[in-house]
Amino acid sequence: DSSDLDSVLDFINQHYAKPNPKYYGIAKGKNVIVIHLESFQQFLIDDKVNGKTVTPFLNSLYHDDQTYAFSNFFNQVGQGKTSDAENMLETGVYGLPQGSVFTTLGSDNTFQAAPAILSQQAGYSSAVFHGNVGSFWNRDNVYKNFGYQNFFDASYFDTTGDRSEQYGLKDKLLFANSVKYLERLQQPFYAKFITVTNHFPFPLDQEDGDFPIPNTADKAVNNYFATAHYLDQSVHEFFNYLKRSGLYKNSVIVIYGDHYGLSNTDNLSLAPLLGKTADTWNDYDNAQLQRVPFMIHIPGQHNGGIQTQYGGEIDVLPTLEHLLGISNKNYVQFGTDLFSKQHDQVVAFRNNNFVTPTHTVIDGTIYNNADGAIITHPDATLKATIKKEQAKVETELQTSDTVNNKNLLRFYTPTGFTPVNPEKYNYHNDFG
Ligand code: GP9
Ligand code: MN
Prior knowledge:
Elements: H1 2-15, E1 31-37, E2 48-49, E3 52-53, H2 56-62, E4 67-70, E5 73-74, H3 81-91, H4 101-104, H5 114-122, E6 125-130, H6 139-146, E7 150-152, E8 164-165, E9 168-169, H7 171-182, E10 189-194, H8 219-245, E11 251-257, H9 264-270, H10 283-288, E12 294-297, E13 305-307, E14 311-312, H11 316-323, E15 347-348, E16 354-355, E17 359-362, E18 365-368, H12 380-405
Parallel strand pairs: 1-10, 1-11, 4-13, 5-14, 6-7, 6-10
Antiparallel strand pairs: 2-3, 4-12, 8-9, 11-12, 15-16, 16-17, 17-18
Helix pairs in contact: 1-12, 7-8
Bound molecules: (2R)-2,3-dihydroxypropyl phosphate and manganese (II) ion.
């Protein structure tokens, strides 16, 4: 009811972070290409196995001065995994404490999402490319509520035989077979590519690569490096195409890992590969592995570099909107622009745990990020700080849950935004 909406708008207004004039609009009018790296974790960047570099191309992007590369960026997904990441990145609202917001509420809820915002504010066309069936995670319904004009799902590709693996068309084939559609999108476009090959338990056909994998006791850990290497090659091939086609220079390319690939159990076999041992491995170590890449590559602009501010998936939409010169002042988005001087570096995990530049707090236990040690007797100041941060995390997540569970955006239309009419979209007409 309206008092719920008032408390949501109060939180959003108090938490708003103003744009940083140095970055506002620097990518205005450029195509936005979003590359969703399935299950790709930050520790793979610059990693070597048996002396062999796992992801040479993504490493080169990470260190390129045209890239803003975030070294302390965390996934914040719950059980909705990929779909939670999509919801956060494209609406600025969290997923649910249980289940997937796409599946449980996505067909009928009102969303104010990136495809609609970019279309209405800056004339962007939009498309998603994903080699799985469109009904997975209820995407074919959700995307209409997001205002996506096109959704190129498995039905647009030949996914037969060894062209697919587990969740759909192999990544190299997704990129290669999407370009004929991408080239026909009216520019500027907002185009998202959701990869699948690097997905637990990371099977890979012989013909798709021969990366020398480690031989831990955990097959998923071993195979993770082979599928990550394959994904790296896929992105490399796509960049080559973007450069050859001329799209590269007119685009900003956003790359992110959606969530962890290896679970806390797998991490015990991974530990030795990270220079640690299973017997000292703990919750602090598991939390540090929740980092995923987040890179904003702006061809032709050489002011990039590693960004160390702490942030997460909830912060992507406000950051992107400001880079495109779009104000999100009146939108219900829970994150803050990573470049803003008011950016909030308290990163909430879906289970109420959180991480800040100085501490990691897991079920109330405070770890010092400097050395991973538990702070058993925090002084009064630290105790008060952690208490305040924990309260912010819980309020933020509960407020987001209220927006989702009560479908509050039905009752609130930001000035300048026109509610999306999902009936306008049909993803199976022959692409006009
Ligand atoms: C399914 C693919 C994988 O289409 O996006 O989803 P996940 O299992 O990572 O949520
Ligand atoms: Mn995923």
